[in-house]
Amino acid sequence: MVVSSELIVLASTKVGEKSLVIHCLSRDWGRRSFIVSLTRQLNSAYFLPLNIIEAEVIENPKSDLWRVRNFRLKHALPGLRGNISKNTMSLFMSEVLYRTIKDGAHEDGLFEWTCNSILTLDALDQDFSNYHLRFLMELCTALGFDLSMEGLTPFAGEYYGVLGDLHRASFAEFMLYPLNGQKRNRLAEILLKYLSFHCESSINVRSLAVLREVFA
Questions:
Q1: Fewer CB in a 10 Å sphere around the end CB: N or C, the chain?
Q2: Domain boundary assignment for the chain
Q3: Are strands 30-37 and 66-73 parallel, antiparallel or unpaired?
Q4: What is the pLDDT, as a whole number, of residue 139?
Q5: Is the pLDDT of residue 102 over 70?
Q6: d(Cα 115, Cα 140) in Å, to the nearest integer?
Q7: CA distance 78 to 57
């Protein structure tokens, strides 16, 4: 059975010389991995992290790894791909999603929220240095965790007041909230610990170190 579907690429893994496994978030199946047959005509740029693509999914009841074909970029994301700071932030966001959402997980509304988060970052012209923090906070809610100051208290330490301000802030206020690189990094670490606690597994996001350098 062939089904047309939208997929958000979280990561990819090369398998041999002619195949690629793409780890995706989909509206229809939640987090799922698919196998792609590579050809000279198939541009690997389709599978950059956080790309939103349309593809034909070939369902196979005899295998958990379904094939996909006939790709089309749903959104070009010029604002994201043309800006090294945004692109670095997108790598962080995709790795967080990849390490947080388990295979087979299917949260209602998560696909739509993720699409909106990607398109919002793509559209922002300036003042987006705090965006990954907003993303982490909203992700907690999208995954069904109770993001309250009471829940954050065990992780907040000296940043309790700042987290309280950000928790109450509108989107515009959040983006303009004055933070230096050190504070942003520490807040990201706190929110990742909060996510790890609720996911009951350690979330080690390697791209945070790169993000730390870009937004120092």
A1: N
A2: 2-73, 78-214
A3: parallel
A4: 95
A5: yes
A6: 16
A7: 26
Tokens standing for 42? 């198939």
Pick the CATH number of 78-214 from 1.10.357, 1.10.150, 1.20.1440, 1.10.20: 1.20.1440
Residue type, 132: H
Instruction: Find, among 204, 47, 155, 34, the residue nearest to 103 by Cα.
Output: 34
Sign of the alpha-carbon dihedral angle for 28, 61, 105, 97: negative
Q: What is the mean pLDDT of residues 144-168?
A: 92
- Residue corresponding to tokens 């989107």: 171
φ, ψ of residue 72 to 5 degrees: the values are -145, 130
Mean pLDDT value of segment 190-213: 86
Q: Cβ distance 138 to 131 under 8 Å?
A: no
Q: What is the mean pLDDT of residues 98-127?
A: 92
**55 band by pLDDT with thresholds 50, 70 and 90:** very high
Class of domain 2-73 (CATH, top level)? mainly beta
Q: Are 29 and 102 in contact (CB under 8 A)?
A: no
- pLDDT value of position 186: 94
